[in-house]
Amino acid sequence: MAKIVGGITTSHVPAVGAAIDMNRTQEDYWKPMFAGYEFSKQWIAKEKPDVAIIIYNDHASYFGMEIMPTFAIGIGDSFEICDEGYGPRPIPVVHGHPELAVHLAASLILDDFDMTVLNVLEVDHGLTVPLSLMYGQPDQWPLKVIPMPINVVMYPQPSGERCLALGKAIRKAVQEFDGDLKVQVWGTGGMSHQIQGARAGLVNTPWDKKFMDDLIDSPEVLQFKPHLEYMIEAGSEGVELIMWLIMRGAMGDKVEEIHRFYHVPASNTAVGHLIVKPKEN
Fold it and tell me: Which pTM value belongs to this model?
C-alpha cells in the first residue's frame, strides 16, 4: 500500500523563486536563506519520494474573484506553470499522479470534504517555489506532484480545525491506496508577513517560533487558533499557516522533527521550514 513517509513545511516567497531563476542565490542578501535548505536538498535526494501532495494557495494567478474554491485537488497528468504577470517561471512542467489523485479526491469527498476536482490547472509560485527550494534547477522534477490549492486569499477561509481534519483524511486515503508509493505531504506559505498597508513588512519572530513548536507538539490545540489572531500577530498573509496544519494532520499523532530552519528577512518576509516524519509509536 502507499505510505506517507514524511512532511515538509516551507514558505513560498515569490522573490525566492526569482533569486533561483536569476542565479542570485549566493549573493550576500540571499546566501544565508538558501543555506538553510542545503540539508533539505540532500535529505530529499536520499529519501526519493514518489509523490508529493503539495498544499498551497493560488495567489489570484489561476483562480480569481470569479472562482475561488475552498479545497481543490488537481488530478491531471501535468500542470503548466502559471504566468503571474511577468511570464511563467523558467522551470519544468509539473507532472501529476492521476491514479492517486483520483483516489484521493473520491476518498475525501466521501469523507465529507467538498473538493473541487481540477482536470486542468496551472500552478503558481505557491507550489513551484517549494519545489525549487527542495530540488534546485533540474531538467525535470524527480517526483510526481498532486496539487491541492486551498483558499487563504478571500474571506471566508477554512478553519484550522477543518484543515487539521483534512490532513487526517488525506492520511487515511493514502493508506488505502493500492499501490507501492512513498508519499510526502508539503504544507506551504507563511510565516508572519504583510505585503501591504501601514504594517507592510511586519515580522513576528517569537510568534512564528512558537507556532513551529506547537505544530510539532500541540496541533490539536493549535487548530483552534482564530483567524483574527493570525492577522493581528502574523500579518494579513499570516493565515497561510493554516495550510501547515493540513500537512501536520497527515503525519499522525506524533512526529519526529528532522530539520528546522527560520530566517529573516527574505523579501520582508519571515521564512520558516520544517521536515518531519511520522512517529509510529
Answer: 0.98
